[in-house]
Amino acid sequence: MILLRRRRGRLPGDRVRGGFRPWAPGDEAAEGRTTLLLLWVLATAATVLILDVVPGGLPGAGAGAEGGARRLLGTAGAIGAGHALVALYLARLHPEVLRSTRRLALAMLLGLGTLAAARLLEAAPPAPFRLVLHTPAVLATCVVAIAMGPRFAAESAALLLYDLAVAWRAPGIGAPGGVATDLEALAVLGAGCGVAVLGARRVRNRARLVKVGLAAGALAGLVHLALHPPAALPGGLADAGALLAHGLLLGFLVSGALPFIEALADVVTDISLLELSDQNHPLLRRLLLEAPGTYHHSVVVGSLAEAGAEAIGANALLARVGAYYHDVGKSMKPEYFTENEGKKGLRHGRLSPTLSTLVIKAHTKDGVVLAREYDLPQAIVDFIPQHHGTSVIEFFYQEAVSLEGDSSVPRDAFRHDGPKPQVKETAIMHLADSVEAASRSLSDPTPGRLRDLVHTIIWKKLGDGQLDECDLTFRELRRIEEAFVRVLVGVFHSRIRYPDARPGARAR
What we know:
Blueprint: E1 15-16, E2 19-20, H1 29-53, H2 69-93, H3 101-120, H4 126-132, H5 134-148, H6 150-167, H7 182-199, H8 206-226, H9 233-265, H10 270-276, H11 282-290, H12 292-312, H13 316-325, H14 353-373, H15 378-381, H16 383-386, H17 394-404, H18 424-439, H19 447-463, H20 474-491
Antiparallel strand pairs: 1-2
C-alpha cells in the first residue's frame, strides 16, 4: 500500500506550531533512539530497584531470598531483556507512539506505580495481596488505553505482567480461600487488564468507564473462581465479590480522574469532544453571531469530515469537532470573507492583492489566539493552522498576475503559512474545507458535477504536496472521495416545485 507521506527525516516530538510531526527515519534519527534508550535504562533500573534492591522485596523476590547478588543479576537481566524487546518493537513496528515523550513517560510511571503498589502490599496475607493488586494494575492499563490507545495499552499490560512474573518467580504462596499459585494470580490480573484494553477505547460517556470497571472485576472474579480449589469455594466467592467491588471502584476512579489524565497526557477524549461539539459553546456562539456564513460553512465541513473519517476508520468525532472550530479566526474580521459579505468583493475591492492575501492568511493566526483564549485542547487547535496547509490563495494570486501583466509574481508569496496536515483527521478536514467552498460556486450542482469537482480538488491537493506529511493512502483517498460525494449530493438535493397558492382556490 503506497503512503502519501514524503520522508523528510523528522524526529519524534518535532513540534510544528503546537502539533507533532510524523516520525520518520533520517540523519537525526539517532536523537530519537537516544531518547528511547534513556527511557529503557530508567525503566529497567527503577523496576529492578523496586523489585529486588530495596530491602524486603516482594514475597519470594527479595534480594536475601536466594543469596543476594546472584538473584539481583538475574532480575536485572530478565527485566532488561523484556524491556529491550518492547523498546525494539516500538521503534520498528509502532513508531508513532514515540511522537510524545510525555505520554511514554506517563505510561512508564503508571507501570512503576503498580509495581510500587505491589511492594506496599507485600506485608498483607497472600490472597488479599494478589487481589488488591488488581485495582492498580487495571487502573494503569485503563489510563494508558485512554491516553495512547488500546494497542499500546495491550503492550504495556503485557510488559507489566512480565515484570510481575519475574518478581514472583519463587514458588507460589497459597492460602485457604486464596489464589493457589502466582501464575493463577497473573491470569486474574491479565483478565482484568484485557477488559480495560478493549473497553477504554473511544469512551463517549463516564458511565461507560464504570461499566468497564465492573466488567474487568467480573471477568477477573470468574477467572479466579475457575482456577480456585473446589474445597475453598466459599472463600473464592468472597474474593470474587471483592474483585467486583474493586472494579466498581476502578470505574469511579478513572471517571473522576479523566480531566487530569487528559491534562497530563495532552490528549482529548471522546467525552471532551462531545462537550466541545455543543453548539452553545461560547466560541461557537460567537462565531454564529459575528460570522454566520462561516458558522454554517463549518457545520457542513464537519459533516463532510465526519463522513470521510468514518469511511477510513479514523476518528470521526475529532474530525467533526475540529471542523467546527477551524475557521473561528474569521470572527475577528468576518466582513473580509465571501460567505459573510453583504455584497461580494466589497471589502477586498479597495485592497491590493497582496494586502488581501495578508488579511486572508491572518485568520488562522487569529483562530489560534482565540482557541487559546477559550482553552481549547491542542488536538482541536491543530486543525486551525493546518486546515489550509501551504495552499496558494489562487484568487488573489491570479489577480496579482493580471495586474502585473506577466507571470513573474512569486507564487509562494500567496501561500498560507501552514503547516501541512500532520494526521489523517486534519488532512480529511483540509480536503473537506476546499470541497465545500468550491461546491458553492457550482451553478447546477448535479451528482455528476459534484463527483468531478471532488475528484479534481483531491488530486490537485495531492499534486501540490499538501498531503505529504500525513499517512493517507490512495485507497483511503478513494473512500474519502466517495464519502464526500454522498454528503454533497444530500446537501444539494433537488426538490419539486410547489404550485403557487391562488386566493379563493378550494382545497382538494
